[in-house]
Design goal:
The complex is a heterodimer of chains A (206) and B (161). Chain A is of the alpha/beta class. Helices cover 35% and strands 13% of the residues of chain A. Chain A contains five helices and six strands; from the N terminus they run H-E-E-E-E-H-E-H-H-H-E. In chain A, strands 4-3-2-5-6 form a five-stranded mixed beta sheet, with helices on one face. By secondary structure, chain B is an alpha/beta fold. At the A-B interface, helix 1, strand 1, helix 3 and helix 4 of A face helix 1, strand 1, strand 2, strand 6 and helix 4 of B. Strand 1 of chain A pairs antiparallel with strand 7 of chain B.
């Protein structure tokens, strides 16, 4: 009696149990990484002495409550915003010390001096729709990215990456070894076209 | 020639299913590891606008989420159809945002407290007034890194009806 072998446990239902769990996790899985437009808000402490900025160095974009765009006091279609912003940033109309030797714009004296001085000012109404706001932000970021891509390709013709790709790679933990190499290249381009996007507080509706 | 005698019975042997649990377990573990459970149920409509100049968000533990939009149809009769903010699992007013950020920040590890990003998941139909109010609140508590979460797509999708 004592020597009887223990009967083997039937493992036939193991697959069923595993399948059940598998289906549960299959259904609840969301493999997603969120992405979006990163922005930095200005700190609250008021600047005591705001610097004086020349009118020609500011590119004003106003979005009204009917989601229409007013760019530099002229109505503009959203589709043309990127080009208009590129022209403004890349103008390089400065003289002497303020000249911009890498700009390819028309050097119009009534537009921005150089990309370092150029500021895009975005103002929206409280009733502007968020979708349109994001579209405008997207186009303005795209203008900067286009210029930075161009500059990056000009400075590093052999790298085979665009600025945006290089930036992505810089942030990617899989390419940790390339960080050292990419950082000065990215910083140089960023210094040439610094992203200066200022947002005014929205209009109060009267 | 007895050695090469044909085996009796031409039936194909049954395929062994003994390794089936192994395969299933392997898949199971993959999905268990890859699963991210949704930590808050959405109570607002949340159709994100499209953008293509986007950057990936930081790791999950460095992000706090603020949702906003019109209450979804289940809650519409109770909360109306004005756009509202959702923090964790509750509707909240603009004044609660600051306290929420401070509480979230306090719950994170010390070394992450200064690198937190606030992800704004806002429905495309929301008015900018609400978002500006949120941004003002975030500035008050010094949560300056924000991310407008969008889905990948061309911006022209936003203006189409």
């Amino acid at each position: 009696m004592a020597k009887r072998a223990a009967p083997e446990v039937n493992a036939g239902s193991m697959a069923d149990i595993a399948f059940l769990l598998l289906i549960f996790f299959l259904v609840t899985t969301t493999i997603e990484t969120d992405s979006g437009i990163n922005r930095k808000l200005p700190p609250t402490d008021e600047v005591v002495d705001p610097p004086i900025i020349k009118e020609r160095n500011i590119f004003t974009v106003v979005v009204n409550k009917n989601n229409q765009l007013l760019v530099e006091e002229k109505p503009l279609d959203l589709a043309n915003l990127r080009q208009a912003a590129i022209e403004f940033l890349d103008n390089g109309g400065g003289q002497g010390e303020e000249a911009c030797d890498y700009c390819e714009g028309p050097k119009d004296p009534s537009s921005s001096d150089n990309p370092e001085k150029a500021i895009i000012s975005l103002k929206n109404d409280r009733e502007t729709s968020y979708k349109v706001y994001i579209s405008v932000q997207n186009e303005l970021v795209a203008a900067y990215n286009d210029l930075r891509d161009r500059e990056f390709a000009k400075l590093n013709p052999l790298i085979g990456l665009s600025f945006v790709e290089a930036n992505k790679r810089y942030a990617d933990p899989r390419y940790v070894t390339e960080r050292e190499r990419l950082k000065p290249l990215l910083d140089e381009v960023k210094a040439r076209y610094p992203q200066k996007l200022s947002e005014a507080e929205p209009n109060k509706n009267k | 020639m007895a050695k090469f005698k044909k085996k009796k019975g031409g039936d194909t042997p049954a395929i062994s299913t003994a390794s089936l649990p192994d395969i299933v377990f392997m898949l199971l573990f993959f999905f268990m590891v890859a699963t991210v459970m949704r930590d808050s149920t959405l109570m607002v409509q949340n159709t994100l606008p499209a953008a293509d100049q986007i950057q990936k968000l930081d790791k999950k533990d460095r992000v706090m989420y603020i949702y906003a939009g019109k209450p979804s149809s289940r809650y519409a009769d109770k909360y109306g159809n004005q756009a509202r903010i959702q923090l964790n699992d509750k509707f909240a007013s603009v004044q609660d945002v600051g306290a929420f950020v401070l509480a979230e920040r306090a719950s994170k590890r010390q070394e992450l407290q200064n690198v937190l990003t606030t992800a704004l998941k806002v429905d495309g139909e929301t008015n900018m007034g609400l978002i500006s109010d949120i941004k003002q609140e975030l500035r008050q508590v010094n949560a300056l890194k924000i991310n407008y979460t969008t889905r990948l797509g061309d911006y022209t999708q936003n203006t189409k009806k």
